[in-house]
Known about the structure:
The chain has seven helices and ten strands. It is α+β, with helices and mostly antiparallel strands and 241 residues long. The protein has one domain (11-234). The longest helix is centred in the first third of the chain and has 18 residues, at 11-28.
Amino acid sequence: MNRTPPARPTGAELLAAAARARLEAAREGLGTGPVYWGLGVAVVVGDLDPTSFAGGVVDFTRTIPPELRDGWYRTFTRTVFLAGDPAGAAARHPPRHTTAQGDLAWYGPARRGALGPLSRLLRAFQGPAPIETPAGPLTVTVPGTPSGHTIDATVATGGVTTGEYLVHVHHLIAEATLRELIGPGDTLRLNHRETLHAEEFRGVLDPLRAGSVQARITRDGSDGDRLRLYGVLTSNRQGGH
């Protein structure tokens, strides 16, 4: 008897399965030591250069001490973005990391109370809509001995505001770095496209590939009833989570 082959998952089903895999990974944590709960990060944005921002996310995440990494990962790398002068803010609140250009500064991971004074000093960052990005790929070299590894990431920009872009890219790159999908000496290549169709990324969204893939999936900003794929990062390193 001939059996009908199982139907291929739809795009919505692919996104739902990948989102569940991320949720389960965050619940399991990194397994790197004690867990400090309720941690978040704040970023002071003076100016936005996408290359500087992407490199800054990697560099900041690599500075986080081991005892804070798991707690932040388990809160889904919660981050707030604040508009202001990083140098002026640093005079009163020393940051953990600042980009070489001085246009971005990172604080935390810390509990909300520790970040409260900074949040009260500055307003939430908004930025223009839609986000303006270069036509070609951005390339970031992670400090360290050249590894020969190239990490490819693609981010959706259609209908995305500057503030939303910061959120999506920060989650994507920070979580990949915490999971060691991005390492010292790697090259990160970041592409921007209007829309990312789940069917096009069917292979990498398979939960069986989760060990080498980071995806950014959340509610569609224009339709809260459906999920949208905002970013995909693939690595030839094998993460543990």
